[in-house]
Amino acid sequence: MNPEELLNENSERPKQSPLISLETDLKLFSESMREVAVEIMVEGLSRYPIFVAHQHEVKLGEEIFNKEELNTEWNINASTLEEFVERGVIKKELKQRFIDSFKNPHEFMCVFAIVPEGANFVFFPYSKE
Predict the structure, then answer these.
(1) Whether the model pTM is above 0.90
(2) Is 29 within 8 Å of 65 (Cβ atoms)?
(3) Which three-class secondary structure state does DSSP give residue 109?
(4) For residue range 75-101, what is the model confidence (pLDDT) as tens digits?
(5) Residue 27 sits in which domain range?
(6) Of the residues 21, 31, 81, 104, which has the maximum number of CB atoms within 10 A of its CB?
């Protein structure tokens, strides 16, 4: 973080939402992410693949795209609902609610986007070929 951000000295121009750059990266990685999701399901690891999008160090899932290596804005890790429950990110008693709201994993990627303000799940459509 820059000192100006801490002091709020550059407040004359609004800061762009990090989710705009996330959308750009997700579109770029879309086809590869779909392949990873299908692989997770075909190998029987999970019926609920989850991608973790982050810009800092996160110990959740396995890294599949590194922003430094690919010159992008976001790191992307591949994970599963089971890991999220095991690590307490999703409470066991809320697991069924998550499953009920999970969109078709062949059409949508489930992304757990982590930003400084917090984290949330987003279902983002895979790009059409």
Answers:
(1) no
(2) yes
(3) strand
(4) 999 999 999 999 999 999 999 999 999
(5) 18-125
(6) 81
Q: Is the pLDDT of residue 4 over 50?
A: no
What does the alpha-carbon distance between residue 36 and residue 86 come to, in Å, rounded to a whole number?
Answer: 21
Mean per-residue pLDDT, 57-86: 96
> How many domains in the chain?
1
**Mean pLDDT to the nearest integer, 99-109:** 96
Give the mean pLDDT of the chain: 88
In whole angstroms, how far apart are CA 120 and each of 4, 111, 129? 27, 8, 27
Q: Which two tokens stand for residue 11?
A: 């407040």
- Whether 8 maps to a domain, the answer reads no
Q: Write the DSSP string, 53-88.
A: EESS---SSEEEE-HHHHT-S-EEEEEEHHHHHHTT
Asked if residue 62 is part of any domain, the answer here is yes
- On whether residue 4 sits in a domain, the answer given is no
